[in-house]
């Protein structure tokens, strides 16, 4: 097990340090699938935070009843912008869960501290390892059916810092060189719980949880179940190898693919304020919690929505 932990840590360091992903020239920045035209939103105002990913929703009070029509239009915004934000919302964890259940069954995460409810994952600086932050990842890809999405609410906001970033992995796929697309077409990759948690769980617990959640295979490029769009679906926290390739080639390609989340044109950065809520599509994004607020506290609560098996 020690060898496995050391290898996982080394792979994370290599992926962070080696930038093989420099592709110069203009980038294709499409919010919507090719051939799909944007439509106006009738029930709220949408304020994009950039040309590609992320938008604030104004004119919705999340305390109020969400009708079927409003839910459908919010879902359309989520699919278009990949992550949507709400300001000045006075909701509690019960309401947060109610909203999440409008998109599906909620899931628990056995590795994350729960709040007062099993479906609330609580991230509190000082009560959790620093390692949960400062890494690009997609949530729980070690599951056979990774989360559809998640709703995050700040309970305690630091006076500065503590932003969260998201990257559009559909745009990341669109901009891959043709030779890379050809090499990964139809391939699967192994996702393992060990790399993401080896740095702060003891070996006994790692073995216990790996028995419960053995490695799974997912497509390197998944098809979004609602939009039909191709999306790059590997991440440095949990993806260990591409099936059918020699280790050296698999490592090289994965390093390249991992770096796509680092491209600024694919990103949005959200500065939190009291009352802010974020809802993101976990099938189409990676995210990164910026740890730059020490020594101030930062407490967030998240609910995650059960997804389906990637295809």
TrEMBL record:
<protein>
    <submittedName>
        <fullName>Taurine dioxygenase</fullName>
    </submittedName>
</protein>
<feature type="domain" description="TauD/TfdA-like">
    <location>
        <begin position="45"/>
        <end position="303"/>
    </location>
</feature>
<comment type="similarity">
    <text>Belongs to the TfdA dioxygenase family.</text>
</comment>
<dbReference type="InterPro" id="IPR003819">
    <property type="entry name" value="TauD/TfdA-like"/>
</dbReference>
<dbReference type="GO" id="GO:0000908">
    <property type="term" value="F:taurine dioxygenase activity"/>
</dbReference>
<keyword id="KW-0223">Dioxygenase</keyword>
<keyword id="KW-0408">Iron</keyword>
<keyword id="KW-0479">Metal-binding</keyword>
<dbReference type="GO" id="GO:0006790">
    <property type="term" value="P:sulfur compound metabolic process"/>
</dbReference>
<dbReference type="InterPro" id="IPR042098">
    <property type="entry name" value="TauD-like_sf"/>
</dbReference>
<dbReference type="GO" id="GO:0005737">
    <property type="term" value="C:cytoplasm"/>
</dbReference>
<dbReference type="InterPro" id="IPR051323">
    <property type="entry name" value="AtsK-like"/>
</dbReference>
<dbReference type="GO" id="GO:0046872">
    <property type="term" value="F:metal ion binding"/>
</dbReference>
<keyword id="KW-0560">Oxidoreductase</keyword>
<dbReference type="Pfam" id="PF02668">
    <property type="entry name" value="TauD"/>
</dbReference>
